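A brief tutorial aside. Many learners find it easier to grasp structure tokens once they have seen a single protein encoded end to end. The record that follows does exactly this for Quinone oxidoreductase family protein. Read the sequence first, then the structure, and try to relate runs of similar tokens to stretches of the chain.
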Amino acid sequence: MTKAIRISSVGGPEVMEYVEVDLPAPGPGEALIRQHACGLNYIDVYFRMGTYPQQLPAGLGMEGAGVVEAVGAGVTHIRPGDRVAYAGRPPGAYAEARVLPADVLVKLPEAISFETAAAMMLQGLTVQYLFRRTFRLQGGETILFHAAAGGVGLIACQWARALGVTMIGTVGSDEKAELAKAHGCVHTINYNKENFVERVKEITGGKGVPVVYDSIGKDTFTGSLDCLAPLGMLVSFGGASGPVPPFSLNELASRGSLFVTRPSLFNYIAKRDDLETMAAELFGMVESGKIKIGINQRYALKDVAQAHRDLESRKTTGSTILLP
């Protein structure tokens, strides 16, 4: 038996229960890990609310870090005693220990702590694919990134700086603006005080940007399109304000033959070779000091409901972890 968070219905933070669950031996292709920390991400809210459906009862949480205790038949890339980290399905990271598919696990360098790994795997791999694969930044570009003071945003600020990219970031307060700037964001826009479309046009001399990275969704979608230069790309990778409503493709043509994509990390890491390559680049950026992972909130696993409330009310900044 082990302690874990389970939901038997979808809804608000109160549906999460801290319970004892059976811990089976790992089957073929699986591994049992004892978790030292697990990450908190907005995708967890989507699963909790039923936006992303799953069979109930179910676990929550998409990333964690710990030590391998046992492996099933056919698992060769890790062994008991290895330090590992992961970001991936199936949900269930909110637990003291868990059995999961071994192919989502990567070995963790000694220089990176369990807490740092749990705080960065999903968010860091997200920035990796956004900047290096979905719209590959070469350096010299000016980009717009929404929610620049969030967990993904602060990693993006630092990665953009390392690449020589000028990042414009939207934030919800002056305090968050200072935080984003301290991490490498060149221009910040407080969307509660300023019109972000007008400011982007002002910053870029009316040209717009070649790419917008938008995790907000409904509230920012049209404005994000309006910030793009002709032939630009809107990368819509989340919907914190709600899903983007249906729109006419003519909206893209009328604004200059724009592109829109709705990527998911899990497609990018579906192949083992891709996961290894992406994780290696992320680990290298952290080990070099170019990216520092700011864990600004820590909660006991049993207090996960409060963690979700704080996340949804945008009280959190940087990364948040849960400690079993």
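Self-check: Residues 147 and 160 are 14 Å apart (CA to CA). If you spotted this yourself, you are ready for the next section.
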